[in-house]
């Protein structure tokens, strides 16, 4: 067997092994997307009702709560970035990191100092490679987050928010994550989580008019209980959306990699066949040439 043919066949075996891996990753991601979508849908009613309750308290009370009061001249902001713990997800992580970098630049252009908080090994590695200090980092739960994970992250962010800026606290908290739009579309989004933006509008609230509440023991006490859970809910929903987006992006990337491997195998097989045909043609030519030379030698001796 010729050297060139051996090279082609060795590459075909290598690409075939890679194809098995990418195909398995594609199937695993496809099976997890459905569960991730179901978790997003299951969390929506609670998040919607909690948002309505917080909106109602903010609407019907004049209480100035620390989590709803904006600083006149904010000087320090926190940005929470949600990425994945694993790769093989196409542009999922790079798009989220790019959105975070754009938001950070915008905040710094406004004269604010930015503290970075990151969820996911990929985002942590991105900033550590560039020697950027992180105010907080978490990993190990990006593909299947639990409410306790969101509660842990929210607790640290709320502590930073209620701490004075001269003691290391922040005036604003922003969240950058990936929204699951469809199996083919996942979009990075940036939202301000704290302080809450209270807007006056003539439009009716989503879900109908607010019921009339009596606040016990007080509106401030209700906000003390609801607002931390509201922040936890926002972060948990972002984690669930990001997990579904991660699986969808990984499935799409692995499907593309599998198709590319199949195309490469077809190309290498065609080249291997051409090399084999060339070898056969050369062998036949050598045999025919040898036979002719032997016949000429025999005729000469006669």
Automatic annotation (TrEMBL):
Residues 254-281 form a coiled coil. Keywords: ATP synthesis, Cell membrane, CF(1), Coiled coil, Hydrogen ion transport, Ion transport, Membrane, Transport. It is found in: Cell membrane; Membrane. Pfam families: ATP-synt. One of its GO terms (cellular component) is proton-transporting ATP synthase complex. Gene3D superfamilies: 3.40.1380.10, ATP synthase, gamma subunit, helix hairpin domain. InterPro entries: ATP_synth_F1_ATPase_gsu (IPR035968), ATP_synth_F1_gsu (IPR000131), ATP_synth_F1_gsu_CS (IPR023632). HAMAP family: ATP_synth_gamma_bact. Produces ATP from ADP in the presence of a proton gradient across the membrane. The gamma chain is believed to be important in regulating ATPase activity and the flow of protons through the CF(0) complex. This is ATP synthase gamma chain. The gene is atpG.
């Amino acid at each position: 067997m010729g050297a060139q043919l051996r090279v082609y066949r060795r590459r075909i075996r290598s690409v075939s092994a890679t194809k098995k891996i990418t195909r398995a990753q594609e199937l695993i991601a496809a099976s997890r997307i459905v569960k991730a979508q179901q978790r997003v849908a299951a969390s929506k009613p609670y998040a919607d009702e909690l948002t309505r309750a917080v909106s109602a308290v903010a609407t019907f009370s004049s209480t100035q709560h620390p989590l709803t009061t904006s600083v006149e001249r904010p000087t320090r902001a926190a940005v929470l970035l949600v990425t994945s713990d694993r790769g093989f997800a196409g542009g999922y992580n790079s798009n989220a990191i790019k959105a975070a970098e754009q938001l950070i630049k915008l905040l710094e252009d406004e004269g604010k100092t930015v503290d970075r908080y990151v969820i996911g090994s990929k985002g942590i590695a991105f900033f550590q490679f560039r020697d950027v200090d992180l105010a907080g980092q978490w990993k190990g739960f990006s593909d299947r987050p639990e409410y306790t994970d969101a509660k842990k992250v929210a607790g640290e962010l709320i502590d930073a928010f209620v701490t004075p800026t001269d003691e290391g606290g922040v005036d604003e908290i922003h969240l950058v994550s990936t929204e699951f739009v469809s199996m083919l579309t996942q979009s990075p989004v940036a939202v301000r989580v704290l302080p809450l933006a209270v807007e006056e509008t003539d439009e009716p609230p989503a879900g109908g008019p607010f019921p009339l509440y009596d606040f016990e023991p007080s509106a401030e006490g209700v906000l003390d209980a609801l607002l931390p859970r509201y922040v936890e809910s926002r972060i948990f929903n972002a984690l669930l959306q990001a997990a579904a987006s991660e699986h969808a992006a990984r499935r799409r990337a692995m499907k593309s990699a599998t198709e590319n491997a199949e195309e490469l195998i077809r190309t290498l097989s065609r080249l291997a066949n051409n090399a084999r045909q060339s070898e056969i043609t050369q062998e036949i030519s050598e045999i025919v040439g040898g036979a002719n030379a032997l016949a000429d030698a025999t005729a000469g001796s006669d």
